[in-house]
Amino acid sequence: MSTFDEQEPRNDLRALPDDTDPSPDEGVEQLEREAAATRAELGETVDALAAKLDVKRRAKHGADEQKARVQHAVANVRRSATDREGKPLPQVWATAGAAVLAVGLPVLVRLVRSRGRRLHRYRGYRL
Fold first, then answer.
1. Measured between alpha carbons, how far is 76 from 66 in angstroms, rounded to an integer?
2. How far apart are CA 89 and CA 81, in angstroms?
């Protein structure tokens, strides 16, 4: 068994040969550059975290993007629904009329039937 004193000394990794030993000024400058780079990275990280935590700004940004998408879609529909002079195409009138009929007719029928039932209840009639 060998004791600590009897062991062979290990090569010290921190010790460099004299020809590659940086001067004290170069070592300090290198440390300052590394510190500046670390500060810049840390600043970017803090800014990114702050942006993620700013819910109000993120919501406004999302609303602005959605608004732009809707405006683009409206412009496309308007462009495809009008002729070169800006007048609606006949297909648009037909589609609008069909939509009004499809929504309005069931509402009108239900309104008339409900009124008829109310009147007949008071008179004693049944439909």
1. 15
2. 6
3-state secondary structure of 65: helix
Q: How many CB atoms lie within 10 A of CB 88?
A: 13
Place of tokens 């030993």: 21
Kindly state the percentage of the chain with pLDDT values over 90: 35
Residue at 37: amino acid letter: A
Other CB atoms within 10 A of residue 77 CB:
11
What Rg value do the Cα atoms of the chain yield, rounded?
40
Contact 127, 120 (CB under 8 A): yes
Q: How far apart are CA 51 and CA 47, in angstroms?
A: 6
**Residue 48 predicted with pLDDT over 50:** yes
- In this structure, what token pair is assigned to residue 2? 């060998």
Strand partners for 88: 82
Residue with tokens 């409900």: 114
- Give the tens place of pLDDT for each residue, 61-89: 999 999 999 999 999 888 888 888 888 88
pTM: 0.39
